[in-house]
From TrEMBL:
This is THAP-type domain-containing protein. GO terms for molecular function: DNA binding; zinc ion binding. It holds the Pfam family Tnp_P_element. Gene3D superfamilies: THAP domain (6.20.210.20). The keyword Signal does not apply.
């Protein structure tokens, strides 16, 4: 929608079509001197017009136009005979030009400043974080690969197993003497998942029984779950064959179709701990009894 570039003029193409008299809009000339004179009379200071900036015909006289074949050639006519004198008189007759200009500039700043400030703050934060990382890397102040003793490692895993909130409290109270939770997850991943009884689970049960004065009674459970017959290579060995633990051999070696899982459940206390699993392709009563005895003797 074309509008007049004069700061005190509110004429737009929509209002011009309603008014009588046939108001027209004319773009700024390309000739440097005439263009500079047009910019001066707009009252906008250092403002620069765009390709679509225009001035309405209210600020011109009839002598300012050159008529060719009853058609106004606004571009050539205004370039050859600029009407900056008439426009200047029209602007001078308006009161409060400087105040309007100041208000327009301030409103523009109020509109643009919050968004610009937000972008600048975001860029400043990113640069600051990048600088801190570079300084830490150059000075050797990055994350340290601290080695923890086996006793502290066992204590951290046990405490986190029983109460994650207690673990975080101890870690904050004693100035991060315990490793971060992400380190614990890596330790859990490095425990291995081979078939058999899990030493860490048995150790956790021992610590729980020694920690409380009241005796805890528990009962082992076992269940068989169907799995898909499949052999996979994990980069080190083939997985999916029958495996009933170290030192215990099955009647035959084939592809496992079931997982025999052992679970210890508390009777007079609330806990459940999986203590091991075995891959089988059907198992007889003798083999099942041997596994149960081995679980009880751990």
């Amino acid at each position: 929608m074309p509008c007049c570039a004069i700061i005190t003029c509110k004429t737009k193409s929509q209002t011009a079509s309603i008014e009588r008299g046939g108001i027209s809009f004319h773009r700024f000339p390309k000739e440097p001197n005439a263009r500079e004179q047009w910019i001066d009379v707009t009252g906008r200071g250092n403002w620069m017009p765009t390709k679509t900036s225009t001035i309405c015909s209210k600020h011109f006289t009839e002598n300012d136009f050159i008529i060719k074949n009853q058609t106004t050639n606004s571009c050539n006519a205004i370039i050859n005979k600029p009407s900056y004198v008439a426009i200047s008189a029209s602007v001078q007759n308006c009161e409060g030009t400087q105040d309007l200009q100041a208000q327009a500039s301030s409103s523009t700043l109020l509109t643009l400043t919050p968004k610009r400030d937000k972008n600048l703050k975001r860029k400043y934060t990113e640069i600051q974080e990048l600088t801190n990382r570079m300084i830490a890397k150059s000075t050797g102040g990055g994350p340290s690969k601290q080695k923890y003793s086996p006793a502290l490692r066992s204590f951290a895993l046990t405490l986190d197993y029983y109460s994650p909130k207690a673990y975080e409290y101890v870690r904050k109270t004693f100035d991060t003497c315990l490793p971060d939770r992400r380190t614990l997850r890596k330790w859990y991943q490095n425990m291995g998942g081979d078939p058999g009884f899990t030493a860490e689970s048995i150790e956790a049960l021992k610590i729980k029984s020694e920690k409380h004065e009241i005796s805890h009674y528990c009962s082992p459970f076992l269940d068989e779950m169907a799995i898909r017959r499949r052999i996979e290579w994990d980069g080190k060995k083939l997985l999916g064959h029958v495996d009933i633990g170290s030192g215990i051999e099955g009647d035959h070696v084939g592809i496992a179709k079931e997982a025999l899982v052992f679970l210890v459940t508390g009777i007079n206390c609330n806990f459940k701990v999986p203590v091991g699993y075995f891959l089988v392709d059907g198992i007889n009563g003798r083999q099942r009894a041997d596994l149960i005895l081995q679980c009880l003797n751990l």
